[in-house]
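Quick note —
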Amino acid sequence: MTFSEYLGNLKGKRVVVIGAGISNTPLIGALLAAGIETTVCDRQTREEIGDSVKQFEDIGAKLKLGDNYLDNLEADIIFRTPGLMPWRAELREAALRGAELTSEMEAFFDVCPCKIIAVTGSDGKTTTTSIIAEMLKREGKTVHVGGNIGAPLLCRADEMGPDDIAVIELSSFQLITMKKSPDVAVVTNVTPNHLDIHSKLEEYIEAKRNIYIHQDSGCRAVFNFDNEATRRFAQSAPGEVLFFSRRDKLRDGVYEDSGTIFGAKNGHSEEIMPSSGILLPGAHNIENYMAAFAAARGFAGYASMLETAKTFNGVPHRIELVRELRGVKFYNDSIATSPVRTIAGLRSFDQRVVLIAGGKDKGVEFDELGAEIAKHVKRLVLTGKTADTIQKAVTKAPGYTGMPEIIMCEDFEDAVLAAASSAGDGDIVLLSPASTSFDRFKNFEERGDRFKEIVNGIES
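Predicted structure written out below.
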């Protein structure tokens, strides 16, 4: 089914699109252009959304805005925004009245004409998605990147050809209602995350399983052998399973041994490259590349993979070098919204760093992070709602002996400037919050951009 045919099937039906953000704008426009009755619902007010409200109205959309935006949803089809969980009472009531609940990404899986490679995980999914896309582009493939990164793909589906490849990053919020899986599914790892949204850890894990559970025997799933949850996923995978590991030699997959990355198939191993040849720093990026090598096998040759590893300088907000000033290097790792991600960032450097951390609480534990901070941080600057919790985790850590020094700052800018002023020649200042940005910013990108703005504004 093409996207045009999909729209044709919606004619005569009442459609609700929840969320008036940039990602839904193309969908809203396509629905209205096709003559489909469309209501746009958003928790924000008319003033908060801005000019786009008038644009929607001018092309025929009905609007439900503000606190009661989900009341009395009368619809045949509801496109759910990823952050809105399907068990919300208003959505359940609409479903009982006959509404079909879907999403932009679910509809894309219905109409996509080409192979789909999709990546999920608690950490590393954006970088891994980007690496796979770069490998395929170097191989000469036409690649469409979307999901949590890139442009919305649904309205572009009719422009795609059967030999193209869609490379998609998927969150647990997108996966939780998915009824189809990609041709190649990658799970980087699964650790406790988003427990402020998911009702329990098991629900979060089950959402991740949707990336592969609907595959058939001709599909491939790539799992982290070193992660207990993803290793167990292999038992229920319908198709080919490839693992990646930094700890064990594998019969099928990609593994690291003594500083060299190998590809294995049916017990036969072939050297791919030395780990030191990867441009991006950190052991976690070795894992990201191993996952990408396994996912791209058969789609790209080793030459394209190696060239990507040697030259790809990463994704913004992921251990991104912002500036070197008076011998101090400033790194932006705003993507680190979980303790596991911050631990990976700390382990990327072979020296103690000046760390800026803190943000909104996701309901996860900080004890392991506290121990890592005691090992890898010379000065800790804390800000945001999790500041006190992280401080307690550090001071009670077994290795804490008064180092790092801990500085508490109410304001984000004050925290950045305090870190900068406390750093000397040869130091590294790392923003790696271990928390979400939603206490002060719209998203981690806005937080990272603000960090870069402050750092670049420091007089040399």
